[in-house]
Amino acid sequence: MATKTPTLTWLPDSGTKRGALYQWRLDNGDVGAVIDAMETRDHLVQVEGDFGVGGKVVIEGSIDGEHYHPMTDHFGGAVAFDDAGMKRTTEVVRHLRPACVAGDNTTALVVSLVGRKV
């Protein structure tokens, strides 16, 4: 299991910084490096790529930075993906990260998270 650092792109540019786009490239078993979720709000997550056999990504949040739990959407379901798509998170947490919790040696995913700057 590797911890993958995201790329950060300020939106619309680094001069105005009205929003942030974080992107991680994850393989089976990888965890994304934690981002400070307090810098942005209204988080939307998109996952694309090759899920392989049984591939699954879960978006996890934490208040203390030590214990991580699955985030939920507006319907109370986990923000988890076993296919390409987009979902919003609802909880306010200090730390966010994606985790590729299942898959095979062909699993290769891009997890994108966008949020409005606070």
Using DSSP, what is the number of strands? 12
State the helicity in percent bands.
under 10%
Give the rounded overall mean pLDDT.
95
Weakly predicted, low-confidence segments: none
Largest sheet: 5 strands, antiparallel
Number of helices: 0
Structural class computed from helices and strand pairing: mainly beta
Supply the CATH class: Mainly Beta
General shape: globular
Rg to the nearest angstrom? 13 Å
Number of domains: 1
Order of helices and strands: EEEEEEEEEEEE
Query: Do you know the CATH architecture?
Result: Sandwich
Q: Find the CATH topology.
A: Jelly Rolls
Distance between the termini: 32 Å
SSE blueprint:
Blueprint: E1 3-4, E2 7-11, E3 19-27, E4 31-32, E5 35-36, E6 40-50, E7 56-62, E8 69-70, E9 80-81, E10 85-88, E11 95-102, E12 108-117
Description:
This protein is mainly β. The chain has a single domain (3-117), classed as Jelly Rolls (Sandwich). It has strands at 3-4, 7-11, 19-27, 31-32, 35-36, 40-50, 56-62, 69-70, 80-81, 85-88, 95-102, 108-117. The strands form three sheets. It has a five-stranded antiparallel beta sheet with strand order 2-3-12-6-10, with no helix packed on it. The protein is globular, with a radius of gyration of 13 Å. The chain starts with a strand and ends with a strand.
